[in-house]
Each structure stands twice: as structure tokens, then as C-alpha cells.
Design a protein that fits this description.
alpha/beta; about 250 residues; globular; 7 strands; 7-stranded parallel sheet
């Protein structure tokens, strides 16, 4: 595997799940890490695990454009040249038919999954283009390929990530900046716990009877994409548990 010494990687939503696993994977490859998320205590704990010398962390809610721009503009000089951006911050809220969906849930998903990704990308991409190199890795979902019952707005946000990733690929071709979207199926993280507003029983039932992907599986895919030779660009990668064929077709053990 190509080593990433002297490479600076920004991971959003780094406080848990796929984001935290990406932080560990890129740290093992020798990268310098910029970590952000909403939970300060978790960021501090993660930075301590990774070793503070190669880590700079800051609290950030990607839903707020001014805060995003200020955070990027205020980075110390030695951290300003971001080589790889992992747009991981995202969530799902609720699993309701659209006629009874919770408007606050809709707003949170759209603001985080779509607008947050845009805000961070818009703040980071000009520097990448100016330097003639860079890589944006968007964490999408199989929900961005196929809509499932009651997934309505969440699926719409992930379809948006797929479209934005393609738009980035078209707009940035020839600039030296690569764009990848990694679209996993079922990954056992806090995703379902967040979706069901802390209902542990409903969250655990999602993964009952199968072996889902782990956050480390997705992080390994992100690292693979980031370490391809400069002439190779992985545009899209779909990861699924062996027991899952689509968002709605899952073979569960009794």
C-alpha cells in the first residue's frame, strides 16, 4: 500500500462510525489528520488515541456555512493545504411514509447530507485546484442508487450525493483533483440508533440475522481509493454485505 506521509486528510463526522474508522486507517498509512465533528469530547478522545502530534481537531457542525468557511479559513498555516477530503458527515432520521414524515427530520438530513457536503467541498476545493492536486471522497449510500419504502427523503439526499459527485467529476476533470463516491449497504454503526432517535431495540433489529459491513470495511475502501496512482481515479465504489443484494433484499439467518 502506498504510504501517505506528508499528506493532510480532513475527515468530517469523525466522532464515530465510518469517520472514526477512516481516521484510524489514514493514520496507519502515515497521514496527518484534520478531524471535525459536533461532539468535542469524542474528538479529543480520538485525537488522543491517534497521537496528538499528527492530529488537529476542531468542533464543527457542517450544516452552518459560515462556520464551515471560518473553520477552514482559520486553520493554522501548516494545516491549510488539505490533500484529501473525506465527506463523511451524514445521518438518517426516521423511517416514515412521506405523508407523515417529520419536517425537522427532513431538514436535518437535507442540511447535513447535502448542504453540509456542499459547504465543506466549496471551502476546500479552491485550494486543491490551485495546487493542482487533491482528492474528495464522498461517503454516499446504496440508498443513492435505489429508493426503498419509507426511505423517501434520506434516499433523496443520497441520490443528491451521487449527482453532486458526478458533477464534481465533470467540473474538475483535468485539474488534478480526483472525486470518488463510496456507497455502502448495511453498515453497523450508530446509523440506525440515530435514525430511530435512540430506540435501541429497533436499531438492533436492523442487523439481526446477518453479518453487516463494519466501519473498518468502508474505511479500508476509502484508503484503497486514496492510494491509487495519480493516473487512476476510482469514480464509484459500491460495498455490500454478502447477505445483501439491494436495500430491500437481505438474506437473514433464522
Amino acid at each position: 500500500m502506498q504510504q501517505l506521509h506528508d499528506i493532510t486528510v480532513l475527515v468530517t463526522g469523525a466522532t464515530s462510525g465510518i469517520g472514526a474508522s477512516c481516521a484510524h486507517a489514514f493514520a496507519r498509512a502515515g497521514a496527518r489528520l484534520l478531524l471535525c465533528g459536533r461532539r468535542t469530547e469524542r474528538l479529543e478522545a480520538l485525537a488522543e488515541e491517534l497521537g496528538s502530534a499528527g492530529v488537529h481537531h476542531f468542533t464543527l457542525d457542517v450544516r452552518h456555512q459560515a462556520a464551515v468557511q471560518n473553520a477552514i479559513d482559520s486553520l493554522p498555516p501548516e494545516w491549510k493545504a488539505i490533500d484529501i477530503l473525506v465527506n463523511n458527515a451524514g445521518l438518517s432520521r426516521g423511517l416514515d411514509p412521506i405523508q407523515s414524515g417529520n419536517l425537522e427530520d427532513w431538514e436535518e438530513m437535507i442540511d447535513t447530507n447535502v448542504k453540509g457536503l456542499l459547504y465543506v467541498s466549496r471551502a476546500v476545493l479552491p485550494g486543491m485546484v490551485k495546487r493542482g492536486r487533491g482528492h474528495v471522497i464522498n461517503i454516499g449510500s446504496i440508498a443513492g442508487h435505489e429508493v426503498y419504502p419509507n426511505g423517501n427523503v434520506y434516499c433523496a439526499t443520497k441520490f443528491a450525493v451521487a449527482a453532486l459527485s458526478k458533477g464534481m467529476q465533470l467540473d474538475l476533470v483535468g485539474t488534478g483533483v480526483r472525486i470518488t463516491t463510496i456507497d455502502p449497504g448495511m453498515v453497523e454503526t450508530e446509523f440506525s440508533l440515530v435514525r430511530f432517535h435512540g430506540n435501541t431495540e429497533r436499531a438492533e433489529a436492523v442487523y439481526h440475522g446477518i453479518t453487516p459491513l463494519t466501519p473498518d470495511d468502508v474505511a479500508d475502501a476509502a484508503l484503497y481509493c486514496a492510494t491509487r496512482p495519480p493516473h487512476v481515479s476510482v469514480h464509484e465504489m459500491i460495498l455490500m454485505p454478502s447477505a445483501q443484494a439491494s436495500p430491500t433484499v437481505v438474506k437473514r439467518n433464522a
